Amino acid sequence: MITIPIDPILFSIGHFHLRWYSLIVTVAIIIGTWLAVKEAGRKGFNTEKISESVLWVVITGLVGARLFHVLDHWSDVFAANPVRALYIWEGGLAIWGGVLGGLVATAVLARIYRWKLPLLLDAFVPGVVLAQAVGRIACIITGDAIGKPTSGPFGFAYISPNAMVPQLGVYYTPTPVYEILMNLAIFAVLWNLRKKRLKDGILTLIYLALYSFVRFFIAFTSTYKIIALGLNQAQLISVVVFAISLPLLAITIMKNLQLSVNA
């Protein structure tokens, strides 16, 4: 069992607060963007044009992540004070919202610049999942997205009054740690497969299938609000994404094998 003594506010100047959350999320975005641009260049895309366009992917991803979080917590957090929905620096980003928002932006950009969308997504996903792993470190420090109370053997308790936990001094399941381990494992798989001769889009489908499958089970440890069928928002989206990505992955692999045999 571990006690987290870190104050989520790194330092303050008047009414301005620099929070660990915003700092770590910014670092995560920089790392993910750098890797995405690098991989896009390796796959033959114009890195200058990608660098200019990826900002829109980041912005749309952040908007989607915040929107999904606000919708999930509207009744218990934001209904009484809707302006808090704009306080993104306090924490509260739903990963699925970020993934889906970034996917929409990438699809639009691919259409505008006539890029091959499956190939572009394959270039982006290693950076995306690595950024997810880094970003979850912020949740550990702030107590955001922490899990259910636990009696052991592994839990986090917070003592800073600025921590985003229901109660100080209580040990909670460290859900963000499990998500970090999941993201790093998926990144390792994608990184090892990225140079193999896979059909365009397979890498992205592997990411979606693996992430949605594991995230579904990790979300049982969370305190996310139940939406329907005894499942929370993250789980419901995971079910839908898995139900779509796994058959598509199987079909794509089978077609690829048939082409190889016929060749």
Category from helices, strands and their pairing? mainly alpha
The SSE string, one letter per element, is: EEEHHHHHEHHEEH
The residue fraction in helices comes out at: 55-70%
Round the Cα radius of gyration to an integer and report it: 19 Å
Whole-number total of structural domains: 1
Percent of residues in β-strands: 5-15%
Question: What is the compact description of this entry?
Answer:
The chain is mostly helical and 263 residues long.
Q: What's the structural blueprint in terms of helices and strands?
A:
Layout: E1 2-4, E2 9-13, E3 16-19, H1 20-42, H2 47-72, H3 74-78, H4 95-113, H5 117-142, E4 156-158, H6 175-193, H7 202-218, E5 226-228, E6 231-232, H8 233-262
Parallel strand pairs: 1-4
Antiparallel strand pairs: 2-3, 5-6
Helix pairs in contact: 1-2, 1-5, 2-4, 4-5, 5-6, 5-7, 6-7, 7-8
Give a structural overview:
There is one protein chain. Helix 1 (20-42) packs across helix 2, helix 2 runs antiparallel to helix 4 and helix 6 runs antiparallel to helix 7 (202-218). A hairpin with a 2-residue loop joins strand 2 and strand 3. The longest helix is centred in the C-terminal third of the chain and has 30 residues, at 233-262. 40% of the residues are buried. The protein contains eight helices and six strands; from the N terminus they run E-E-E-H-H-H-H-H-E-H-H-E-E-H. It has helices spanning 20-42, 47-72, 74-78, 95-113, 117-142, 175-193, 202-218, 233-262; strands at residues 2-4, 9-13, 16-19, 156-158, 226-228, 231-232. The radius of gyration is 19 Å and the shape is globular. A two-stranded parallel ribbon has the order 1-4. It has a two-stranded antiparallel ribbon with strand order 2-3. The chain has one domain. The protein is mainly alpha-helical.
